[in-house]
Amino acid sequence: EDKQAEGYGLAPIDHAVTVTAPEKLIVNVDISVKLDDTKATRYVKDSITKAVEGYFQSLRKDWADINQKLGRGYQETIYRSKILSQVMLTEGVVNAKL
Q1: Domain presence at residue 14
Q2: Angle of helix 80-88 relative to helix 41-62, nearest 10 degrees?
Q3: 36-78 tens-digit pLDDT
């Protein structure tokens, strides 16, 4: 049995496989933020952008992990609450809503 690939090496007779490249998913985040008066708006905006980008980067790192339920990877869920929590943890943010 040749086990060079990562699969089980089993397939039905006349099995056909179609492989396609993933499509880019654009996620627009529209959020209202109340800022602390002592912080510069520009500084806080940059920090919020970095925090949200960091959340999406963490999702990208998990992308290749095999989903045990499906038996394959390539499934990810984006939670609004996690985006909001990243914004709320940003220094200078008093309140926020999506």
Answers
A1: no
A2: 140
A3: 988 899 999 999 999 999 999 998 887 767 767 766 666 778 9
> Residue 10 falls within a domain, yes or no?
no
Rounded CA gap, 21 and 84, in Å?
30
Tell me the H-state helices in 1-98.
41-62, 80-88
Distance CA 84, CA 12 (A): 46
**Is 22 contained in some domain?**
no
Token pair recorded at residue 54: 């960091």
* Structural domains of the chain, count: 1
φ, ψ for residue 79, nearest 5 deg: -100, 130
Kindly report the pTM of this predicted structure: 0.69
